[in-house]
Amino acid sequence: MTTIIVPPFTLDSARRKVRLTEDAWNSRDPQRVSLAYTEDCTWWRNRAEFANGRSGIVAFLTRKWTKELEYRLIEELWAVDHNRIAVRYAYEWHDDSGNWFRSLGSDNWVYEAAGLIQRRYARINDLPIAETDRKFRWLLGPRPDDHPGCPRSIFNPNVRNSSGRRTGI
Description:
By secondary structure, the chain is of the alpha+beta class. The chain is about 20% helix and about 35% strand. It has three helices and six strands, in the order H-H-E-E-H-E-E-E-E. It has helices spanning about 10-25, 30-35, 55-65; strands at about 45, 50, 70-80, 85-95, 100-110, 115-130. The protein has a six-stranded mixed beta sheet with strand order 2-1-6-5-4-3. The longest helix has 17 residues, at about 10-25.
């Protein structure tokens, strides 16, 4: 039986909520991901695009994962307060030409009483990386429990990859 995690969040329940969200996004199943949001979610922002309701979220994610191939995400809790969770994250993917990217960002989530996200605000930066600079190499799907979280160097703007490009934000 699955327990629904609802606000007010504790540090522990927020960490569990973040990992469940990460696992859903790593499934790359737009329908599954959309179920974490309210049916009428009208404040769902990703970069410059806004989605309205679950059907809008499904349409957006379908387009996203058609472009962002071999998507692998790691999220970590950044802050929690009552019904709000903030995360920072990194994900790696490649386009249909084989160009690899590491996307770094942060999300703010506002939950309603039943534990569904009412609002999502995302800030994301894409950095080109060489295939050899990839950090997330598990099989597609949820991150294995023994795989570490985000290396701190990913978020450090002074760290450079093998071609001399910055790897952090």
